[in-house]
Design brief:
The chain has about 90 residues and is of the alpha+beta class. About 30% of the residues lie in helices and about 30% in strands. It contains three helices and six strands. It has helices at about 30-40, 70-80, 85-90, and strands at about 5-10, 15, 20-25, 45, 55-60, 65. The strands form two sheets. A four-stranded mixed sheet has the order 3-5-6-4, with helices on both faces. A hairpin with a 2-residue loop joins strand 1 and strand 2 (about 15). The protein is globular. The termini are close together. About 15% of the residues are buried.
Length: about 90
């Protein structure tokens, strides 16, 4: 069975881990253009609550999610295995 894990991206906001394609830093010009394009198309989700954007999350649905967490923090939260996930691996 395929179970999805919810990843906390800050301020109680969650994203399904199996929908995330990339977690990247927002500093480069191509990423800034990607954010603007997503805003223009209505595919931008700003989960920073007015704080500085530190991570840009790209999903398989082409949504772009802005988070105030560091990309490494989001990645670490994705890679942490919880007990419930390992319990289902034997089924």
């Amino acid at each position: 069975m395929n179970y999805s894990k919810l990843i906390n991206i800050g301020f109680g906001n969650m994203v399904l881990s199996n929908r995330i394609i990339a977690v990247i830093s927002p500093e480069s010009a191509p990423i800034k253009r990607l954010i603007q394009d997503a805003r223009d198309k209505g595919l931008l989700v700003d989960a920073t609550y007015g704080r500085r954007t530190r991570a840009v999350i790209i999903t398989d649905s082409r949504h772009v999610i802005l988070s105030s967490l560091q990309p490494e923090t989001v990645a670490n939260r994705m890679s942490v295995k919880d007990n419930s996930e390992s319990d289902y691996s034997n089924e």
